[in-house]
Amino acid sequence: MPHYEPLNTAALAEIMAIVGDKYVLVGPDIPEEYTRDAWTPPGPPRYPEAVVFPANTEEVAAIVRSANRRLFPVVPRGGGTGLSGGTVPVYGGVIVDLSRMNQIIKIDPKARYIVAEPAVLTLDIQKEAAKHGLLYAGDPSSDDCVIGGNVATNAGGNRAVKYGVTADQIYELEIVTPQGEIVNLGGRLKKNSTGYGLVKLIIGSEGTLGIVTRITLKLNRLAPIFTTSLALFPNFSDAAAAVTVILDDPLLDPISLEIIDQKTMAALARYREDWRFSEQGGDCLIIQLEAKDEGEQAEKQNQLAAIIQKAGGIHLHPDSEKVWQARREFGKAIQAESSVLGIEDVVVPVDELPDFSAQLYKIAQTVGLEVRIAGHAGDGNVHIQILPGDTPEPEWESKFHHFTQILHSDVYSRGGRISGEHGIGVKRKQYFLEHVNPVELELMKSVKKSFDPQGILNPGKIFDIAGI
């Protein structure tokens, strides 16, 4: 375990001098929400010693410099919507809540980029871009996530099938290093072969290598026409098999290609009290296409209809824009019907998706649990909600652990990984250690030691390092 010092009176006074007394919470003033994120299971809460609300990069840097002098851990926090325990203060210390850093600094429609602070809602970035006829392609299917959190986990989302994940949208990052230095990484460039690619190293590092304080994002031209279709299939395997056919078609070039199983659709219908998308029954694909004019739109819709029919689809709803809000709420719909559940975020090569889907149901049946699925089929990222079904409560934890072990082994055997976008955090740390190549793990630990020799920044996430 790393050695940290408690946050004594002198340390607290120093922090208050940096941000102002009213922007520091201690003791009973700290709400329980700071002991968890959107995943954290029931159990004794882990409180930080303080929650601090910096207003700018300089204040963040000063806090981190203080942490290095006084040896207390610092946990950066964006929107708190993470699903891996990434903002849980494992060793106490200080949570740096970035919520005051929530401004869009600049948008340049001509050069097609936007500069934002870490606590800006991703949804607001999309809206601001759309005002100028532009598209911010990052879309992690959440109304509440912030761009800093997207960077921390390299979030993917609905449009990754065409436009890539968060890393593919980023030009430049301003970060505070674990020593409290401020540095700009990357650049607003089409290409860059100047030394190590540190931007890509920071993205997805879950706040363990630096605190992101400003992000420069690329924007795309917004297509004149978007269409969303809902295709229903008699079973999940047929829906999964249709994914590669749609992706291989040279005309369609889908923006989004999502998959939802029949039971999840039924849960969404009950949660939203709206049966329009599940009245036909069946597992489904959500397909979003873009077109430059109505002629191209009609051509693509006709081609899609032919593909769905040939792939065994039983129905195609061609005008289904309202399904997106339901898609964003699938987790809430499942949670409304089961207070006990587990969440997994595996990713497999897209060509493995049909066979993996069939195997997933077999694993659940063998272990005696139930699964609900709503995933980013176009990039092989499958979000799985695991429910106890008839499993007695005392047996749930052991069964869930057994299920997860079998699931992860199957995923790795296919060339997949245990997290597509939620991250490792504390949730998947043990599973990660079971599967990661030892050489790869040592390289990661070496990077962490080089960046953060005292283990100040978000310790206890991804892996542990003895002595720091």
TrEMBL record:
MF-aspect GO terms: oxidoreductase activity
Enzyme Commission number, as recorded: 1.-.-.-
Cofactor(s) listed in the protein's UniProt record: FAD
Q: Transmembrane region positions?
A: none
One Pfam family of this protein, by short name? FAD-oxidase_C
Keyword field? FAD, Flavoprotein, Oxidoreductase
Q: Which residues form the FAD-binding PCMH-type domain?
A: 44-222
What's this protein's name?
FAD-linked oxidoreductase
Q: What is the lineage of its organism?
A: Bacteria, Bacillati, Bacillota, Negativicutes, Selenomonadales
